[in-house]
Amino acid sequence: MNRQTAHLRVNGRVYELEVDSGATLLDTLREDLGLTGTKRGCSEGECGACTVLVDGVTVNSCLYPTMKASGHDILTVEGLGTMENLHPLQEAFLRGGAVQCGFCTPGMLLAAKALLDGNPNPTEDEIRLAISGNLCRCTGYAKIVSAVQDAARTMADGGSVGAHVPPLNVVEPVTVRGPAASAGGVGANVPRLEGKAKVLGAARFADDLSFPGMVHGKVLRSPHPHALIRKIDVSRAVALPGVAAVVTAADIPGRNAFGILIKDQPFLAADKVRFVGEAIAAVAAESGEIARRACSLIEVEYELLPAVFDPIEAMTPTAPQLFAKGNISAHRHIERGQVTAVLAQAAVVISETFQTQLVEHAYIEPEAGVAVPDTGGITAHVVSQCVHYHRSDLAAMLGWPVGRVRVVQTTVGGAFGGKIDLSLHPFIVLLAAKTGRPVKMVYTREESITATTKRHPFLIDMTFAADREGTLDAAMTRVIGDTGAYASYGPAVVTRAAATAFGPYHIPHVRVDTYAVHTNNPIAGAMRGFGVPQMATAHEQLMDMLAERVGLSPIEVRRRNGFAPGRALAPTGDIRDGLGYLETLERAAFGLHPSVGGDGADPQVLPLRGERL
Amino acid sequence: MILRGVGIGSIYFGIGNTGKPNPSSAFVEVLEDGSVSVLCGAADMGQGSTTTLAQIVASELSVSVDRVVMTTADTGTTPDSGVSSASRQTYASGNACRLAAAQARETLLDEAARTLFCESRNQLVLEDGVIRVMGDPHQRLSVADVVAACRAKGQLVVSSAAFNPPTTDLDHETGQGTPYATYAFGTQTVEVEVDTETGEVTILSVRAVHDVGRAINPQSAEGQIEGGVAMGCGYATMEEVVVEKGNVHTRTFVEYSIPTALDVPPIEPVLVEEPAPSGPFGAKGLGEPPTCATAAAVLNAVYAATGVRMTRLPLTAENVYLALGAAGYRDGIPPTSTGGSCE
Both A259 and A230 in a single domain? Predict the structure, then answer.
């Protein structure tokens, strides 16, 4: 690639530097100038995390050629405000709770700045449009939109940067029901403690870390859903100049198996692959590009196996079996009372089958981490929701005493259950152990979507039995969850789905069977809700169907059956305290049209225009 | 034809791992200037657990939250606090932090009682970094002075605590047991618009009412609700990882769409506080519940609008169009007049 000279004016400072002619502005900002406040979320101009301003106009710096920016003014989050003098937008984001994980924040701030520069008093719709190219998975955008409005007001009140901004650390004193009042204690809207670093672009996410002598890792993955590995030849990859190490299952000194509940997944596949994207080998090299080329030089001989993609078929004995123990990873059974007898005699029986889909966590920050060899061990600075669990499996992989591996969570850009399982952690730790050098790895968006866990698709058969007044007497369900190639959190997801199968309703007689079933599909594991969103699609529709059958409103049928003190028999037994359900129901019903069971008090809130109910 | 409908969805959510031990722990040290260092293994991925835990410690030790310094999620320094999942950190790590802080508080009060010639720490109150004798406002010591007194005799004000939610495993045959120590509840109502000619479902508004036990940080709690509902909206109408013979087709954000600021409707978060007797200051947990009810409410709203039960997620225009067709809709016109009203 040609080298060219770029003249950049970044945050008011002039730089003259040699760059590859194909370099993107994001590469140049992050790698050459060390301005890591601008984030890489997708490398395809979709997520907006890399938004910067070029001559005041928003651009996705991940696609924007550095040479195109040459001679122009560039503003990144680092140029927006300072520790002592935040920009009103930064101040408003912080004060208004618009910052959660903080990964979208720099791009969001710059999109908002470009808007306010041209339109100091935007409407809500204009704000939403202006930030519609910036994805946020944490906030639902509500507090971002109001923060932009807040900042617009501050700036209109004569606020140039930093003017009339209240001091940051002011937290309101509150009276608490605990031992004594204290500023910022329980009940106070304390801004995120790490929020200031996040709005300044100073928070260090894993991809922002760099260590002397660091090499870069890439993974070779299976193109087949189900196959035996006959042979792996890494010799050509090892011989490639710039390659520091290549590892396969044969390089794992300890236990080649992990999993938070069941250790059924190999760190690197040894003899068999069970899904497309399963890791087979990992490479560390002087650059990510060399590591990628090395991966393509690894030769793997497969013997293809018949695969199974439908969990119902997978449960049959004739289906291809992923494991010697069979395809059923977990089965949870709950049985109380006389379900069959009650169903046979019930005045009203409602039954339906529901199907939910496979879903991606879609945190904006892809998986990333750096493993650094240090005195006597390795420290992994990584994305994580559970550093101690990660340490345990990583140390077992190396056959080391647990404490020799240290896992430090970096600032994490959203997780939602998807950063519980190990992803790139074992690869960088293994490569660091082998090379004695810091090893960094960052997943591409494609890797993040294809190789890591997802939300379980559920097939749910559910039946409710009630009397003519709509009082539930029995419920029954059978749930098949496609847990994909490995257990991950699947057994716990179907256990939670069973334990809270029928929603917050008192039901004496229950039967529940939930299954986590292996297929050669992507792995389903933990995702925000853990089986409950799936089950709710079934029990909530059955409640409405029951209401219609017995002539009650949707609110009234829930009022009649909802958990209340002394009447809160869940599938697993009595719930005795903290029963807040009916209050949530009444608060939700407040103002609704009488036809759904509301009091009609506030026609402005959720006016009912459909007449179906 | 554009039809509108309102739907409701209720859920409950057990806080912590189901029927399994899931302890959290914390170390607390009151430093020489009276500020507080807390070490806790709980991982904050953006949900705000670090701030929440600091607020719990601030209340327990009656110090300003900006004098509480948190170190979290580092196996080299922090004790094990389990996984940040199951909506458990406010409850489990919150209890661990509170218990550790309470021990440090007792150490401080015991020492202060000796210095102030009180028979028991119960005669003292700790407030805003000052310990004073009840009924005698002139008899007082700063926390920093008490720490100095402790240190002068070789005692550090350090404490540790662990908390494991009181649960039992589920019986293997019957499934009966106490799988969770406390439960969060929620009800959401949504209003949707369905274009019967295209099948497009638009979520117009969501009210999300959640029982959190006690809102340690109401703004943060609202943020959890708004973000959870947005994810629920994506689940309801947009998102699906398409897999064919094990190959993922939706491999990028171009192919896998999540809600943008234009897709997420106005959300009205409402907090209900029915305390958990075993929770820190009554708190339960909130990370997951807001995501759980939205799709269910949307499904009911689409039925309210169209009279057709959708049994398959997501409610993309294509899926809804096909379902309406299967239910007898022709060119967007319902088979009978029982559908929603025209707009």
Answer: yes
